[in-house]
């Protein structure tokens, strides 16, 4: 009777050792996977830098839009002023030839300013379009980084769960082995011959 219980204990002990060996090989494979994933990880400081750059680009974009609005108002004012001047010159052409000549010179100057303002507005529009492209690119990069971070978070959570299961199994194995050693070392217990 005692011999058969020892045989069962030996079988259980061998099976536990097999389980431990399997767990160790699984752990080694998981560690290899984690080391491969470490290569794909995004550093937080890079992510934070991109977010900071995006904020700065948005700030500059806002300032450029405000400048465009101001310059557009100046342009509209100048265009309106030129229209008034041209209308005034046409109505008083015959009687105020000398005044007309002076006003035409002034209108030319205003047109030159107008052309400069239009050119400036075109440059600002070009800058805005370029910055909007940069902003879109930065937002796409941030979305990609957020996706990677979420994937890494899920992977690490799964790894922690696996490690917790492994710890529980190792504690269980330790208790079983400790109980077995107590049973074998108990007084009145004779080992089979």
Would you kindly provide a written description of the structure presented here, covering whatever features stand out?
The protein is mainly α and 193 residues long. 91% of the residues lie in helices and 0% in strands. The chain contains three helices and no strands. The chain has helices spanning 2-40, 44-91, 97-185. The longest helix has 89 residues, at 97-185. The radius of gyration is 41 Å and the shape is rod-shaped. The model has no long low-confidence stretch (mean pLDDT 83). Residues 51-166 form a coiled coil. InterPro entries: SPATA24. Keywords: Coiled coil.
Annotation keywords:
193 residues, mainly alpha, 91% helix, 0% strand, SPATA24, coiled coil, DNA binding
TL;DR?
The protein is mainly alpha-helical. The protein contains 3 helices and no strands.
Residue share in β-strands: under 5%
- Biggest sheet layout: none
Over the alpha carbons, how many angstroms does the gyration radius reach?
A: 41 Å
The tally of domains stands at 1
Q: What would the principal axes of the Cα set say about the shape?
A: rod-shaped
Number of extended strands: 0
**Contiguous runs where pLDDT drops below 50 for at least 5 residues:** none
**Treating each run of at least 4 consecutive H or I residues as one helix, how many helices?**
3
GO molecular function: DNA binding
Pfam family, one: SPATA24
InterPro entries: SPATA24
Keywords: Coiled coil
